[in-house]
Amino acid sequence: MRAEDRNKRISGRKNGTDIDHALVMLPPRNVDIEKAVLGVILLEGAAFDLARDFLHPECFYEPNHKLIWQACETVYSKGYKIDLIIIADELGKMGELQNIGGAYSLMQLTIDVVSSAHLTQWCIILLEKYQLRETIRICQETISKSHREEDIFEILEEHEKDISIILHGNSTKPIKNTMDLIREVDSDLESLQKGEKKLLGLDTGFPQLNSLLYGLKPGNLILLGARPAVGKSAFAMNLALAISAANNVGIKIFSLEMPAKEYMYRMLSCVSGIAMERLMKGKIEPHEIETYQNAKDSLAKMKIFIDETPAINISQIRSVARRLVARGEIGLIIIDYLQLMGNVPGMRFGTRELEISYISKSLKELAKELNIPIIALSQLSRNLESRSVKKPMLSDLRESGSLEQDADIIIFMAKANVEGFIDFSVAKNRNGKIDEFELMVDFAIQKFFHRDSWNQFNTPKPVAEDPRLPF
Question: How much is the average pLDDT of 311-331?
Fold first, then answer.
C-alpha cells in the first residue's frame, strides 16, 4: 500500500468514514455443504446416524437448515425412518413448514445430491465452520469483559472453559430421551455378554472393589478417606498402577504432598518388589538388577503424569484436566489430597469448610463435564482416634461440608487388628452395595494386594533373595 493511501485510510478511520473490512466480514459458513448434508439425509435416512456423530443444530448457519435438522432429530428420537415426506410432516407439526419454503424447498435439497460418499468430510467441514464462529464469539466476549475490567481470574477461566467446550464438546450435555438411553444400555449389555468388556468402568485391578463398584465409571467422584499414616497415598498409587496396566489409560496424579521423584521411588519399589529403603540408599543386589530393569520398562510404558505443583487450586486443575482430556491423553484423575488444595483465586469464603465444599462440588462437575472418574484423597477427623470403635464414618470426613453429598463413592481405610492388613469399607456407593473387605499390605514396598493376587501390575514377581549368594 502506498504511503498516501495508507495515510488516507488512517485519516478516514479517524473521521469514521472507513470501516475496517474485518468488522463487516460474514461469519465462517458453507451453505452449499449444509444443503448437501441435508439432501443426503432426506434421500438416505440412515445417513443421519453418521451425521449426528458430528453435528448438532448450531452447526447449521442457515436458520431454515437448522429447523430441518431439528425435525430430523425429533423423527429419529421417535424411532421412525427419516425421509422427505416424514420430515415435511414433522415440520408441519412444528408450524415451520411454510417458513422454510414448503415441501418444495425440501425437494430442492435432494435434487443436486449425486452421492453420499463424502458425507463424513462434509460434516467435518460444517463442524469446523461452527467452531470458527464460536471462537469469534468467545474472543469478542473476552475482549468486551476485559474492556469493562471485570475480574481477570473469572475472565480467563470462563474463556478457557468456553474454548475447551469447542474442542471436546459442550459440558452442558444434550437432553436424552428414553430411546437414546435404552440404546446405550443395550450396547453396554451386549459388550458385557460378549465379553468385549468385563466392567462398566475402569478395572481397578482389585477384584473386591470391582465387584462392588463395577469399575470406576465415567463422571464419578470417588473419595478415599483415612487418618494419616494408614496408607491412602500408597493405595492411590497402587490403583494408578493397576488401572494403567489393566486399561491402558492415561492417568493424571496431582501430588500436593509428595514430590514427583519420591512418587517414582515408591512406584519402582512397588513394581519391582525391592524395599524402598534400599532403593533410596542405592542398595540393589546383583540378583535384583533384572527385576529392577523390568520394573523400569513396565513403568516407562505406562501413561502416568505426576504434577507436584504445591497448593494447586481447583481452577488450575480444571485447566490442566481439560487440555489433557481434549487431547485424549488421560481417562482418570487422582488428587492427593483434597485438604492441601490452594485457595480459589478471586473468591472469598467465610470458612475452610465452605471452600472445601466448593472444591468438592467443582470436582464432581468436572468429572461429569470431562466424562472421566476422579479420585480425591481426604483426611479424616482426629475425633476418630478418641472413639472406642475406630471404624470410620461419613461424619469423620474432615471439613466435610458437602463432601459426602457430592461424592458418588466414599471408601474408608483403617488399620486392621492383624498386622499387615488394612480394612476397607465402602461407606457410600450411589449405584451399588455398601460392604467391607480387607487387603494385605507390605509397606516396605508400598504394595497392596489380595492374598491370591500378587500380580495386578502385569510385572514379574520379585526374585527372592538367595541365601547362598555371598552378600
Answer: 84
- Strands of 421-429's sheet, edge to edge? 304-307, 251-255, 332-336, 374-379, 221-226, 409-415, 421-429, 435-442, 447-449
For cell 415451520, what's the residue?
Answer: 96
134 residue type, one letter: E
Q: Which residues have a catalytic role annotated?
A: 257
And the C-alpha cell for 110?
A: 435432494
Q: What is the pLDDT of residues 53-110, one digit of tens each?
A: 788 999 999 999 999 999 999 998 887 889 999 999 999 999 999 999 999 999 999 9
CATH number of 202-449: 3.40.50.300
Record the pTM: 0.64
Check if the beta carbon of residue 109 is closer than 8 Å to that of residue 42.
yes
User: CA 325, CA 317: separation in Å to the nearest integer?
Assistant: 12
What is residue 467's predicted lDDT score, i.e. its pLDDT?
Answer: 34
User: Is the Cβ–Cβ distance between 439 and 206 less than 8 Å?
Assistant: yes
Spatial contact of 372 and 330, defined as CB atoms under 8 Å apart:
yes
φ, ψ of residue 63 in degrees (nearest 5):
-55, -40
Residues 6+ apart with CB under 8 A from 282: none
Closest-CA residue to 153 (of 346, 320, 359): 346
pLDDT tens digits, residue range 124-142?
899 999 999 999 999 999 9
Within 55-176, where are the H helices?
Answer: 63-77, 84-94, 102-111, 119-147, 152-168
Domain extents in the chain: 1-173, 202-449
Quick check: bond before 337 cis, omega within 30?
yes
Q: What cell does 277 get?
A: 529403603
Q: Which of 311, 307, 297 is nearest to 457 (CA)?
A: 297
Give pLDDT, residue 348: 67
Quick one: 1-173 is in which CATH superfamily?
A: DNAb Helicase; Chain A (1.10.860.10)
Q: Hey, which bits of 278-325 come out as E strands?
A: 304-307
Residue linked to cell 465415567: 218
